[in-house]
Amino acid sequence: MATPRWLDWPVFRQLTGPDRLGRGAAAVSRETESLRPRVATADKVSKSICPYCAVGCGQNVYVQDGRVTHIEGDPDSPVSRGRLCPKGSASLQLTTGSSRRHEVLYRRPYGTEWEPLDLETAMDMVAERVIRTRRENWQEEVDGSRTRRTLGIASLGGATLDNEENYLIKKLFTALGIVQVENQARVCHSSTVAGLGTSFGRGGGTTYLQDLQHSDCIIIEGSNFAEAHPVGFQWVMEAKARGATVIHVDPRFSRTSALADLYVPIRAGTDIAFLGGIINHVLSTGKYFHDYVVNYTNAAMLVHEDFQDTEDLDGLFGGFDREDGTYDVDSWQYEGVRVASAAGKRSVDEPRHPGRDMQSSGHPESHGFGGPALHGEPLRDETLQHPRCVFQVLRRHYARYTPEMVEQVCGIPREKFLRVCEEITSNSGRDRTTAFAYAVGWTQHSVGAQYIRAASILQLLLGNIGRPGGGILALRGHASIQGSSDIPTLFDLLPGYIPMPHAHLHEDLNHFISSDAADKGYWANMRAYVVSLLKAWWGPAATEENDYCFDYLPRLTGGHSTYDTVMAQRDGICRGYFLLGENPAVGSANSRMQRLGMANLDWLVVRDFSLIESATWWQDGPEIETGELRSTEIGTEVFFFPAAAHIEKSGSFTNTNRLLQWKHQAKEPDGEARSDMWFIYHLGRRIRERLAGSTEPMDRPILDLTWDYPLEGTLGDPNAEAVLAEINGWDAEGRPLSGYDDIRDDGSTSCGCWIYCGVYQDGVNQAARRRPHREQNWTGSEWGWAWPQNRRTLYSRASADPEGRPWSERKALVWWDEEAGRWTGHDSIDFIADRPPSYRPAPEARGVEAISGVDPFIMQADGKGWLYTPAGLVDGPLPTHYEPQESPFPNLLYPQQRNPVRLANSREDNRYQPSGDEPGAEVYPYVVTTYRLTEHFTAGGMTRWQPYLAELQPEFFCEVSPELAEERGLEHHGWATIVTARNAIEARVVVTDRMTPLFVQGRTVHQIGMPYHWGPNGYTTGDSANELSSITLDPNAHIQEVKAWTADIRPGRRPRGAALRRYVEDYRRRAGVTETTGTEA
Amino acid sequence: MPTNQFSGPDPHVAASAGHRDAPPRYGFFTDTSVCIGCKACEVACKEWNAIPEDGLELTGMSFDNTGRLGADSWRHVAFVEQRKPLVGPPPDESHRGVDALAAAAQGVTVPEQGGWPAPLVPEQPGRGGDGGSAGDTDLRWLMASDVCKHCTHAACLDVCPTGSLFRTEFGTVVVQEDICNGCGYCVPACPYGVIDQRPDDGRAWKCTLCYDRVGVGMEPACAKACPTDSIQFGELDELRERAAARVEQLHGDGVGSARLYGHDPEDGVGGDGAFFLLLDEPEVYGLPPDPVVTTRDLPRMWAHVGVAAATMLGGLAAMFVGRRS
Amino acid sequence: MSTSDVTRDGIRGAHPGREARVGGTGEQRWRPRGQRTAAPEYSPDSYYGLPVLNPPRWAATDIAGYFFLGGLAGGSSVLAAGGHWTNRPGLARPAKLVALGAVSGSVVALVHDLGRPARFLNMLRVFKITSPMSVGSWLLAAYGPAAGAAAITDLTGWFPRIGATATATAAVLGPLVAAYTAALAADTAVPAWHEGHRELPFVFVSSAALAASGASMIAAPTAQTGPARRAAVLAAAGELAATARMERRMGMVAEPYRTGWGGRLMKAAKALTVAGAVGGALLGRRSRVAAGVCGAALLVGSACTRFGVFHAGMESARDPKYTVEPQRARVRERAARAAEENVA
Ligand SMILES: Nc1nc2c(c(=O)[nH]1)N[C@H]1C(S)=C(S)[C@@H](COP(=O)(O)OP(=O)(O)OC[C@H]3O[C@@H](n4cnc5c(=O)[nH]c(N)nc54)[C@H](O)[C@@H]3O)O[C@H]1N2
Ligand SMILES: Nc1nc2c(c(=O)[nH]1)N[C@H]1C(S)=C(S)[C@@H](COP(=O)(O)OP(=O)(O)OC[C@H]3O[C@@H](n4cnc5c(=O)[nH]c(N)nc54)[C@H](O)[C@@H]3O)O[C@H]1N2
Ligand code: SF4
Ligand code: SF4
Ligand code: SF4
Ligand code: SF4
Ligand code: SF4
Ligand SMILES: [Mo]
Known about the structure:
Chain B: It is found in: Cell envelope. Chain B: The chain crosses the membrane at residues 301-321. The complex is a heterotrimer of chains A (1081), B (325) and C (344). With 1081 residues, chain A is of the alpha/beta class. Helices cover 25% and strands 15% of the residues of chain A. Among the domains of chain A are: 38-96, ADC-like domains (N-terminal domain of TfIIb, Single Sheet), CATH 2.20.25; 105-182 and 484-705 and 720-756, 3-Layer(aba) Sandwich (Rossmann fold), CATH 3.40.50.740; 903-1071, Barwin-like endoglucanases, CATH 2.40.40.20. In chain A, α6 (163-175) crosses α30 (720-728), α8 runs parallel beside α19 (448-461) and α12 (271-284) packs across α17. In chain C, a hairpin with a 2-residue loop joins β1 (5-7) and β2. The two termini of chain C are 44 Å apart. Chain C has a two-stranded antiparallel ribbon. Chain C has a single domain, classed as Formate dehydrogenase/DMSO reductase fold (Up-down Bundle). Chains in contact: A-B, A-C, B-C. The complex binds ligand MGD (2 copies), iron/sulfur cluster (5 copies) and molybdenum atom (MO). Molybdenum atom binds at residues 184, 188, 440, 477-478 of chain A. Residues 51, 160-161, 184, 187-188, 440, 444, 477-478, 580-584, 587, 607-609, 612, 643, 676, 930, 937-942, 1012, 1025-1026, 1029, 1042 of chain A line the site of one ligand MGD.
């Protein structure tokens, strides 16, 4: 019933109502009256998780008429409490915006244009290519050892994908014999896994974001917390609100520094000197937490008498083989213990010296769950006085890391350094806790794992591990990069940090287990985990008689990391390449080499949302511009498959808290976009169909594979919960296992990833639990599911004293309840729940039985936190400062300039520059570091195409100090060219006081900061910082050094076309760069 | 009905605008001391309100590439880099007198670099080493998210001839896009430079304080997204209390420069519905130091118009009096 | 130390509010200021020199034109009435026609400037005393038809009674039409307009009278334009006085009236106005040509005033100093007063 129009006339309402002036009620329009927000009219709200970073913020996805109309924060989430950073807030544009492609594209060899191709045909073509390339490049044996693999195919990507997708990718590709399966975890946090794993027994952060609120002091170093994990940063602010001190140590004053109480500028690449200085301060002033150190760390263990420290050998540890460039690690052992570390020479009936090959197979990463195995009982000196006890070794090793040395190496004035020491030590101990938060400012160095080790040592000395407000928070990168490390699409790992078998060492299952399993702790159950994994993959085909199909696993013979793969592509070994959500043409070090590698392939499959640089380099990449490549001469066949977005598929992400959170599908993808689950499942199905009936032994693993999942929806997506159930595992009756204690080694249980066992307890998807944070305590234990066993704080046994009482009543997390005969507290304890503090194992006890009541580090072979790593790392038992591969300074601490065992590979397209005092070093005089901006994400595939994000940071820039600007004549807002021995790029100049020159070794050094998000495609475009970086790797984890290198900077834009290469060459010539520059050990 | 319609405090803005049984007045307290400059507020607002992207321009103004509030930026995060420590007494006047405008002008010019300079052999940088500044980096980086103030006396609303701008039951000020005819009057009326017209569409746009969301009991999109709760949404009275306590706390912590802006109902606009905690003078953030709602002077304007018109009528009439030529 | 304890019973002493502290331990060292030239110095008085206000989006021709035409119409209606009742048909008729033409033109200009011209009728949706534009719209809605009726009845000779009423109505409303635009401009935050809110109405009515006189001097026989010529002199004096007073009172905000485009136009206006008025008074009766020239000078002068005011306003909105400095001064004054009171 319509009211007469004139009654609607506001003037009439003005005259008759209370709003005489016509400023409110009278002026209301019809539309306003019927205004309803679109969230109120939505048909359904689907729960999801932000697809960008590893904070893992909860999202509510609103769906109306089959369309997603809005995405915003889920207020129930204990992690994010409803908040989203700009990227999370732009998720609607990411998923529904016009930049997404919905059709399959095909580029034929030597073609110049994309062509449409229908999805089914494309899938068949890819299946055919996989089979052919695999056949043509099969390696049944290498050097007489069985390998049963192909190096002809590689795959990259996984950190943006669901755990279930990663699981199927690893499963299918491993069955196909593909070992070069990698994801972002390699380039991002692999050194974390090695560093934390060897220190504590697990490679995940020891604490979680929300617990930071209880810190008395937070040191953020090697992380731009506020920008890279903005929503997680609320917990830092929460701590600050309660009076905590926040310190930021970083080469650049960033948005994190702006909120810190104390900002400490540091020369990039010198954190070990800085942390070593603090360790020295703590030891020399006696400020360590004595009772904690004695009881919970390996301080009392005696080190082998043959051990030689860097003090004795000018910066080298004992056992260095100069020819091979590796260490023989035997002399690093405890007294009285046999080493069983695969990471070097082995003592028992193994080939004497696997050397570089073995070292490069990335074994240290397998300590992501379970430290290295030890056999025997180490000798101890509880007084910590024995000259060879770890404590004294440590003291001597760090004695030279004085405040003066810190000042000279890091450029941090003495007073500032001592203030940091004061804050940390006064906020640690019984009553107080200090937390460390770091990310890739630490991991991405040629000594990356040792950076993290240094922090681990410090936190152990201060008694900060396992306690509320303490710990080390590894801020992981992508939404599920933690998951893609746990269920690894990584060449060196099987699910749950079980190492991939090595051709020369692991002939059969027993061998494999005996060389890696520990005597003591949970890692002693390794056999159960391996057998159950093999059962999950090969089901009934896996029997005791055939070693549970252990032979089906392809073998490593060395490094097959993503950087090895690039070399293999350049060398024509790798012929086919899957990019499953990764953009190496921008994101990986030396991106030019990445593209040149791809230009040498037979075929390339790219699955992404938009046409990223890794998909289009053949058409309009930088090498086409310089004339180095011509489209018509590139034989690579390229398939582009549009990927489904996070809201279009169900599955779980594992965030930086080690927390699995389930995403529910809000709608099916449009057009030909498909989930990666769909892709990998149907690819596998097609391959199996084509191979059906094959009698070739090489095809058995793929034909015997359990590859049968219920399909659902109109598109036939495999049911993700069914995959999760397989990951969780079941017993002989098919009942879901409820935890890894249930896993058996007799073939009666099956489990796809033992550390995730329990996520499907009782047949309930525990990752999908969503009890609002307001209805539980701060640990949020009924929200999602955290590994291990839904525990939030790792090593929490250490929060109580040896008798089981909290160290302090203001830091009570778990404690022994004598009456109940159990541990109790706020979190589920990371220990054996009913093991009393007084328990001491019998001498012959093995495995879990051997864990004493005062052994908080239950994955370590000795139950202790490792101040000193007698095994597990390949570049030393103690962190030692080495200069980065490229540095303007000589190493002031030792004659040894660089990490002697770093992986450097000088090639025509990967040349190194002179360092320190070497002639020519002054040609590249400045330190460069790369980093992130809040507004963009990684290689830019998910942000550079989004107008709302692009407009906030619209151009690639470099940050320089006013002093450097003056020195080089750079103009604010103008252009600069930055050049290294690899390439030259141009960037807009931002002159800012936030960059500060440092005074190091008697002179001023300037640093240049560059975000690495840009590339030539997308809505905002620019040169990529990674054109400049080199492939130089940490030997433990194969992570690239992109946080510190040297370069020159000049005003103006870079040369175009062929002149660009000439320009780079000219610099090389002046610096005297040759193939041996920078390669000495 | 309150007595004053044009300026001064008005504890019941919604009631004054004819809303019976109005809920309490809602607003924002933006505490810039905890802002991490993430711009989530900007993006969340754009996503919720489907505001067009408005240009890729590197401004050279620290990390601010939005520039200012406008028709397509209803939230704007300002970034100010200063060479002074965070902790300390209120900034004195000594920093004045810098040729700011020249510097800023320099900041927004794009020098066109045509040619490529010949590579030089670099001389050794800084080896002589003045070094005095090593590690000496006390500077602060202020970040502040600006928004429509939802003034108690909103000039934009007052001058709007169509009733497109109106006062809602929550005490907020909202444009009704089905009414606005693009007269553009609200634009210069706003003393804060908030509302603006969209050139292609002609209408005026600004923050609605998420009128639609608040109407169903939801928090505004920007406040909800804000990771550090720099933007706090709530009942204005409660926010004012919280803000007062916050300033006190900061002063106690030695941050002498903390002050509130727009919180005072006695100020020139009768107090803002969206007010701020700042760490420097308002103008440093691009805010007017002492805004006054233009309609405060409207009674006098009308009086003068009346007198002037009468004078004109009388004066011209007088010209006709007397001898006819 | 944090105030939050994790006790066996849970968290104790968590901060109730949501606010975090800043600073607290910051080392207070100042970085020396040497000769750092390249870094963009933050500006203490503005945000990178950007305006505080959003300058009006109005087009000069539309809005200054609208001011001018409204004034011309309003003034002409009064002259028309004068002519009508003092039996100067030669003055009355063209004045009525000019009024109709000008008011039509002004409405066209106004509608043309709308972002959504189709919605111009929304102007009559409400009546808002707080909005000069609303008041003006209603005023025009009354005045326009009156001016139209006055002109048409005059031309056609039909309905003389209605014509007379319309003429009278237009004459009464005319000055309001001429004057309210001053309030329209002044009722903004634009410093050079708002600060002139007392004098601007006088400037505008003077300018309107000048335009109307000028038009009459062009269009009417010299014999009948005596009142117009006298009016021009009076109005010129009035405008000069009002402008001078306005600028004096404005202080530094008056700068845009003296510099740049605004200054140039205001100077031209002054010259043309004085020349037109004096010339008209001296020669307007004797020479038809002189009358025309002087009339034109007055018209153009009036237009210059409106465009000058317009541009001065725009400039004052664009440069943040005109917003910030007077406000700063106000704050300082208040603080000084408060300090004094405290002492006392
Ligand atoms: N907005 C946003 N968020 C992200 C991402 C993103 O791209 N954008 N990416 C996600 C991913 S994949 C990751 S891995 C994380 C990474 O998160 P972060 O590690 O925080 O990211 P970065 O900015 O790369 O590096 C951190 C800081 O390390 C500093 N740094 C560089 N070299 C050194 C050094 O030698 N020592 C010290 N102490 N500091 C150094 C840099 O200046 C930088 O401020 O962020 C995740 N979150
Ligand atoms: N110089 C320098 N280089 C660096 C770093 C640095 O700090 N400095 N950081 C390194 C780090 S930590 C990282 S993690 C890497 C990141 O480098 P990349 O991983 O190469 O960068 P992203 O842009 O995140 O690429 C992920 C791609 O996956 C796509 N994607 C997202 N979701 C899905 C999905 O569900 N399915 C599919 N198929 N695709 C999807 C996205 O659109 C995007 O293009 O960069 C590394 N490189
Ligand atoms: S990008 Fe990270 S911090 Fe931002 S909303 Fe997503 S998960 Fe949260
Ligand atoms: S700030 Fe400006 S736009 Fe917002 S209500 Fe006040 S006057 Fe209107
Ligand atoms: S532009 Fe629209 S909102 Fe602004 S005053 Fe005119 S009608 Fe009102
Ligand atoms: S309240 Fe709503 S409309 Fe206003 S700025 Fe925030 S999100 Fe935008
Ligand atoms: S106000 Fe909040 S959302 Fe906006 S930039 Fe600051 S911290 Fe980010
Ligand atoms: Mo990462």
